[in-house]
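I have been asked to look over a protein record a colleague put together. Alongside the sequence sits a line of tokens, each denoting a local backbone shape. Please read both lines and tell me whether the tokens look consistent with the sequence. Take the sequence as given and treat only the tokens as open to question. I have pasted the whole thing underneath without changing anything:
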Amino acid sequence: MISSTLRATLLCFLATNPAAAFTNHRITNTASHTNKTNNHSSYRSSELNLYNSVEEAIGEAQRVCNEQGGDSEACKVAWDIVEELEAADAHRTPATPTSQQELSYGPLIMSLDLLSAKIDRKMDELNKLSTSLVESGAGPEVE
């Protein structure tokens, strides 16, 4: 769970630098905890990773799962992050709106011309075949 201090730090960071959400940063919060049984201070580090791509998040998730085990909470969280990034990518709008994208009709027209010429040749062959069948004595159904 993210501490309130880390959450506030992250929100301030993203508010001042929104592009940071799309670059790879490692934000570290070191919290001091006192062990009540022997009065020793221990430091726990909470890290929040922001990824450039889903592939980076997948690599990190695989690393975490290899280090901490596939059933660990950290592994589950890492894969949850991957799912969220994939969902965000799926819903992202294209860089250029479709109204600005131009469809080139030139290749389509050329293909249609080639197809038309091919059909004309085949129709000529079919007419010649039909004529030769009629000359050979075929019935009126061939005409």
Summary: Confidence is low (pLDDT under 50) at residues 18-46. The chain has three domains: 1-50, 53-90, 106-142. The radius of gyration is 34 Å. Helices lie at 4-16, 54-68, 73-91, 106-135.
